[in-house]
Amino acid sequence: MSLFDLTGKVAVITGSSRGIGRAIAEGCAAQGARVVVSSRKADACQAVADAINARHGDQRAISFPANISSKDALTALIAATRDSFGKVDVLVCNAASNPYYGSMNGISDEQFRKILDNNIISNHWLIQLVLPEMVERRNGSIIVISSIGGLRGSPTIGAYNISKAADLQLVRNYAVEIGPHNVRINAIAPGLIRTDFARALWEDPKAEQAATRATPLRRLGDPGDLAGAAVFLASDAAAYLTGQTIVVDGGVTI
Question: Looking at 101, 160, 174, 240, which residue is catalytic?
């Protein structure tokens, strides 16, 4: 059996109706996992689940819409997963918000709180929801999608970067707490990926050209470039890896 095989595993992926989250859901399903596709819009989630099921010829995926800003909605998401698949083996905290683009000096309290709530607190809620069963089974993998923004400053997305830096510490701290129970937690820090979420950073041709020149691999990332890292962290191939951050950025941060 391949070290990367996820047959029999159940993975919940937030923000998986498009972009990085969708690529991770498709990647996990391709390795045999049953996946729960979740984002705010029910139709978009169902379309992704239908596409995965059509590709694999079985009930490999279900959809359940949930807004990460609502603890009740996330509680319902995890409950629905257990009702359908019986358990949660893998949690991927991918959904995030960035309602502000500009200097930190101009951000409103409401905007800053939304970023912190959706990008940090919601991940903490989800982790709390899945941990009891993972601890009981002494098995589980939690993956938080952070960003290379959490490793450096920015004149335009500073609040987002602050939240992503906090996610890296969330991972490190939880790793210390849950490691004795054989539950792993790690982060992935993508660079600039060609998604709708990051469109403001790459859709201008000059900005795209500058970003490409600054990347050793000389291209921007695609959502599929993150799927392999997530499958690795979800699988037995990463059985001795916890509290770490895998940077997937084409070499930008070097």
Answer: 160
